[in-house]
Backbone:
């Protein structure tokens, strides 16, 4: 049986495999809301410019509303023979309302239709994801405010470097997520042009009011070039690039959560709600949610690379290749959304072991830089010299099996005679973090201020 929507010039139906490879209904059903929104706007415009009657428009609008209810209720008879969501809905409309349904596609092609639907879908996804990013930022800012003065070891090369505060560390992720929001906003701004009304590729001879459909669908303007309008998928790529960068940020935090939960660290503890057990090792409490957030980054990055690869080398204008744009975007949006939710949950759930973090913050000669800075500030040694002297003191402490504050004044003076007992005041963790008051530094006063700023901005 030939396709009822385009089968006029065909004598026979597709082979089973042709139908299977061609159909997208299994995944583009997800676009049903956007497809109906787009069709309602198109029909209203057709009536407004006098291409269809007001009566037909009413029948179309009623029919589409009934179909929306049918889909919502899970009672819509989706069929693979009708390929995609657009033809499934249009065929059903004609089945219900007759001739008027057949007029809906006037001056429209599935090429501008799908480009419009997909933009609407991505725009809706952006709005939902932005709200989720904000929620995670709030969770982080709240914890940062509570731990603005609690020290933890800061690392470079994952080696103990200098003490920082736990609040400062959490706010680093708030900065990253704020940039992710900026990328989402940028992407939304650029995608917000409406392809509807350019038809297949060349535009149409019907006197369509493209400004009207663009405005009705919340777009800023109609797309200016018909060829570009049907073939551009930059908006999907920008969305995926934003998703990939943000998923990478979540993955870094997830990796830290995994490290912080591990037995040698035990900086934080996740409750039963965010951990799982082992089927053989009774003692285990595994941070699976964090591991899965870390892993889902792979799918999101894969989606970006996958769609870039689909798009490269496609001649203008539409080619069926672009039907492959949807699954990566749906999958990446879902993975990103779930990761954001899981991460917000973990951030709110975790219990930091403040005493243990403070302990570790002071170990590993973490305040060696403070000692060198003291030599520069008080004894006026050149920094390079101070660095060398401090290095000798670290070696002496290491040989003695103590931390820097475990050296006696005499032992210190053996390396640098000018050292006085005052030096011990800069070797504590609290003195170290408190001294880092430069803008952007980890001093508790700074961190409290930044956390409050974010809490207010996100409220
Ligand atoms: N399902 C198709 C897609 O997602 C709709 C557009 C079909 N257009 C065409 N000329 N065959 O791209």
Residues:
């Amino acid at each position: 049986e030939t396709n009822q929507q385009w089968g006029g010039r065909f004598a026979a139906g597709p082979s089973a495999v042709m139908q299977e490879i061609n159909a997208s209904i299994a995944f583009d059903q997800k676009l049903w809301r956007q497809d109906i929104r787009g069709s309602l706007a198109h029909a209203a415009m057709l009536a407004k410019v006098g291409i269809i009657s007001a009566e037909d428009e009413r029948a179309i609008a009623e029919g589409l509303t009934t179909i929306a209810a049918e889909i919502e209720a899970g009672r819509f008879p989706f069929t693979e023979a009708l390929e995609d969501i657009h033809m499934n809905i249009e065929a059903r409309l004609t089945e219900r309302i007759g001739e008027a349904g057949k007029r809906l596609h006037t001056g429209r092609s599935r090429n501008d239709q799908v480009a419009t639907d997909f933009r609407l879908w991505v725009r809706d996804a952006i709005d939902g994801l932005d709200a989720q990013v904000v929620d995670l930022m709030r969770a982080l800012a709240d914890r940062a405010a509570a731990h603005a003065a609690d020290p933890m070891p800061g690392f470079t090369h994952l080696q103990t470097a200098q003490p920082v505060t736990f609040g400062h560390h959490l706010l680093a992720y708030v900065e990253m997520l704020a940039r992710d929001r900026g990328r989402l906003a940028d992407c939304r701004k650029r995608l917000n042009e409406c392809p509807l009304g350019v038809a297949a590729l060349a535009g149409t001879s019907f006197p369509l009011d493209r400004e009207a459909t663009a405005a009705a669908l919340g777009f800023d303007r109609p797309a200016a070039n018909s060829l570009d309008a049907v073939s551009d998928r930059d908006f999907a790529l920008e969305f995926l690039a934003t998703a990939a960068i943000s998923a990478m940020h979540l993955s870094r935090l997830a990796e830290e959560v995994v490290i912080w939960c591990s037995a040698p660290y035990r900086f934080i503890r996740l409750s039963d709600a965010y951990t799982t057990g082992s089927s053989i090792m009774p003692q285990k409490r595994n941070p699976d949610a964090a591991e899965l957030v870390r892993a889902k980054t792979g799918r999101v990055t894969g989606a970006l690379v996958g769609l870039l690869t689909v798009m490269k080398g496609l001649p203008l204008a539409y080619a069926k290749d672009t039907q492959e744009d949807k699954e990566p975007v749906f999958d990446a949006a879902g993975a990103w959304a779930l990761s954001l939710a899981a991460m917000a949950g973990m951030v709110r759930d975790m219990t930091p072991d403040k005493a243990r973090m403070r302990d570790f913050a002071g170990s590993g000669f973490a305040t060696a830089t403070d000692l060198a800075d003291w030599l520069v500030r008080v004894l006026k040694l050149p920094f390079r010299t101070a660095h060398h002297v401090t290095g000798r003191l670290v070696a002496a402490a290491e040989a003695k099996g103590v931390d820097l504050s475990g050296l006696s004044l005499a032992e210190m003076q053996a390396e640098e005679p000018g050292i006085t007992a005052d030096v011990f005041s800069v070797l504590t963790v609290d003195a170290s973090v408190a001294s880092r008051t430069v803008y952007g530094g980890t001093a508790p006063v700074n961190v409290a201020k930044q956390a409050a700023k974010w809490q207010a901005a996100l409220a």
